[in-house]
Each structure stands twice: as C-alpha cells, then as structure tokens.
Write a sequence for this structure.
C-alpha cells in the first residue's frame, strides 16, 4: 500500500469539524473500584479535528464553548493542537461534562449537558469565513440532540450544499441512543443529513439501532441510494465495508494490541478525510471520479489511523509519520507471514 504525500494547501482548503466539545472524565481504578477521574478533552467532532491536524492537514473547529474553567482548558488544548479556532465562539454557559465509571466490570456513562455552551450555537452566528474557506465539512454526533445547535448545523450544511462549488460534506451520526429524547424527530433529522452528505461514515452498532432488521451490507446499500457518494461502515475487528456506486471494498483491520477502542471511529474519519485532502479530493465530483485503487489506499490509510488509536489509551490519534511507519511495518509483517 502507498501512503499519500502532503500537498501545499490553499487558504480555501480547511477541513472544518463542527459539533460538540466536552470534558471526558475517565475513571481512575484502585482495587477494582472507581476512586477518581482524570480529565480529557472530548467530543467526536473535536476528536476528528485533532486527528486531521496531527495528520498534517489544515483543520478548523466550529462550535460554541464555555467561558468556564473547562471551556478555557478546551480552547487551550485546541490551540495547542494547531487547530484554527476562528469559528469557535464563546458563551456564558456551562461546559458539557461526561463521566465514565466501571460497575461490575462494565463502563457506565453519565452526561451533564443541559443548557451547555455547545448546545447554543445558532445559524446566524456561524462566521461567513467558514462558508468561504471550507473544503471539507465534517459533522454529527451528540451535537444534533440538544438546543439550537442541531438547527445551526443543518442550516450550515444546507447553505454549503448550495454553494457554486460546494465542499465535500462528511457525516458521522455516532449514535448515542441513551441520550435521544424525541426519537421520531431525531430520525427525521438523520434522514435529512443522510440525503445531504457526500460521505456517511457509521458503525455496525449505529446500524443495529437504525435498522435492527437489516444486515450491515443491506443497510449500507439502502443508505447509498438516499444520496451519499460514499458510505463506510466500521465493524470493529471485521474491518470496514465501503460502498461507492457499484464499487465495494472490504478493508481489513491492522493487527494491534488493543488498549481500548475510544475514539477509533473518529480516528478512522480523520484518516479518511486527511487522505482525501492529500489527494486533492474536496468535492463530491472529485470523490465520484477518484481512481478505485486510490480510494482503496485511502480507506486502508484510515484503517491504520484507527488501529494505532486503539493501541493506546483514550482518544489519542497518531501523527502522520507514526502512521506511515506503522503501515510500512505492517506490510513487512504480512509479507513475512504469507
């Protein structure tokens, strides 16, 4: 497999990630009991932005963050990762907080986000520069569940879709069924995004909730018919199933010692979007005419990014040089064991 080489980017080539940002409090264990928590930046779209930036592509993050101590911590983290924060607004509202504890050996979750800053974004507040500079927009996850932010994201996607030269639109629903209030309204919103997006990335677990009676393959084909140019389904150890038109790819996983799977799907999205950007693919038309082998290599690159993330604790995506070295080692290992 070949890995793409970085290109010089124009000012209008940012990969913009839009959605929630929060603090994940992960458990500190002693004697099998949760005795405390460690603080980590979180939120699926933020994870993707971090992954994109670490892979060497110009990334920006669009959201609304709190002025509280957690919000200041998140802003500092985002800046340190080299992510453009001009589309990150502030609000006098609390930060979204998520706690993970272990009970009977299983993780349990508690989210505190009612009235939080990242739920309060409005369409009118989205900066004009975002519409001028975005080459790829990535969106989705729990930012579509509460407050005015879902409508703001929808309005942004619709406006970008109407551009004379619309950017590539990437959607990952990243479902959290336990947080869904009005399921009928939520499913309706998801259907709108499925029809607007050029890329839909989702997991086998997402499909199990969306359409429990369907197989992964049949639902992916059904989804492709709704409008996306590319549908990619992550299936854990079974690898990735991807569909584009009549083409289909089965991308296997890379063998790693799994530390945990937190952020693996976000890392895959980051690898996919960064790989496409490196190849100059930032529109639906470019994605549709992309050479099949090049797209297969891009999916493989994304799978390597996800595998490396699984080899370390937390949502901690790798840098590009790590991925290239990892792929080279993996190719050598596979060749020696064939």
């Amino acid at each position: 497999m070949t890995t793409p080489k970085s290109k010089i980017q124009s000012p209008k080539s940012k990969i913009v990630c839009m959605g929630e940002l929060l603090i994940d409090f992960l458990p500190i264990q002693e004697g099998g009991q949760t005795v405390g928590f460690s603080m980590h930046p979180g939120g699926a779209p933020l994870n993707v932005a971090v992954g994109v930036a670490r892979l060497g592509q110009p990334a920006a993050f669009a959201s609304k963050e709190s002025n509280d101590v957690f919000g200041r911590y998140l802003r500092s983290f985002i800046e340190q990762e080299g992510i453009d924060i001009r589309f990150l607004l502030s609000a006098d509202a609390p930060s979204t907080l998520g706690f993970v504890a272990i009970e009977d050996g299983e993780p349990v979750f508690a989210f505190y986000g009612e009235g939080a800053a990242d739920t309060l974004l409005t369409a009118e507040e989205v900066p004009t520069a975002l519409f001028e500079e975005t080459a790829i927009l990535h969106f989705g996850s729990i930012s579509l569940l509460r407050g005015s932010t879902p409508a703001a994201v929808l309005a942004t996607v619709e406006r970008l879709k109407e551009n004379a030269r619309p950017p590539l639109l990437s959607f990952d629903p990243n479902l959290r069924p336990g947080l869904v209030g009005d399921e009928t309204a939520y499913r309706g919103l998801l259907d709108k995004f499925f029809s607007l997006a050029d890329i839909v990335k989702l997991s086998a677990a997402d499909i199990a909730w969306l359409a429990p009676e369907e197989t992964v393959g049949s639902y992916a084909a059904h989804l492709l018919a709704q409008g996306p140019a590319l549908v990619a389904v992550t299936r854990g150890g079974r690898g990735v199933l991807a569909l584009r038109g009549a083409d289909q790819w089965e991308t296997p996983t890379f063998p790693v010692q799994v530390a945990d799977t937190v952020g693996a799907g976000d890392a895959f999205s980051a690898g996919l979007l960064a790989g496409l950007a490196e190849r100059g693919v930032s529109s639906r038309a470019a994605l549709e005419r992309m050479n099949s082998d090049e797209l297969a290599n891009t999916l493989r690159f994304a799978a390597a990014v996800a595998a490396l993330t699984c080899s370390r604790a937390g949502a901690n995506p790798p840098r590009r040089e790590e991925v290239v070295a990892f792929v080279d080692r993996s190719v050598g290992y596979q060749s020696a064991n064939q």
